[in-house]
Amino acid sequence: MKYKLTVKQQKFCDEYIKSGNAAEAALKAGYSNRTAYSIGNENLKKPELKKYIEDELKQLESAKLATAQETLEYLTSVMRGEQTETVATAKGLYKNVEISAKDRITAAKELLKRYPTDPLTEAHLRKMEADATIAEHQAEQLVSGDTDTSVNINFDIPKGDSDASKP
């Protein structure tokens, strides 16, 4: 996106992104010591500059953060022993050392957390989801000012378990 910024404004925004300090950014952009604080605050209120800073921060953030896909691929490669590491010992640095069995098992556990297969883990996840749903509903009630605090919970009982309610 093209922004209509002066050279000073552009420099201010870029410096602000680096430091997070408006007065310091204004000084580095070429504003005077006397006006740096007030100009810095003014610049942060200007819609065009604000939008530029927000867009640049989003772009930086997305470039630095690993995606879920990248994370899963990395954990898989660790689990399969495809990654190596550098190990420091009293005798020196050893490069390209195979990942330990312990680290491979840890990677496998992390992957299984995302793809649960045992019934206990699946039940635990369902409980956490239900708790989250209840908490969200309660938060909505607080925000809306609704004083009705009752919660309806519906269970789907499989058709084959018609005697499930009997001991």
Overview in brief:
It is built from seven helices and two strands.
General description of the model:
Helix content is 60%, strand content 8%. It contains seven helices and two strands; from the N terminus they run αααααββαα. It is flat and about 75 Å long. It has 167 residues and is mainly alpha-helical. The protein has a two-stranded antiparallel sheet with strand order 1-2.
How many separate helices?
7
User: How would you state the average pLDDT, rounded?
Assistant: 85
The main sheet comes to:
2 strands, antiparallel
What's the number of extended β-strand segments? Answer: 2
Global structural class: mainly alpha
Strand content: 5-15%
Oligomer: single chain
Helix content: 55-70%
Q: For the largest beta sheet, what order do the strands appear in spatially?
A: 1-2
Rg calc: 27 Å
SSE string, helices as H and strands as E? HHHHHEEHH
Distance from first to last alpha carbon: 66 Å
The poorly predicted ranges are: none
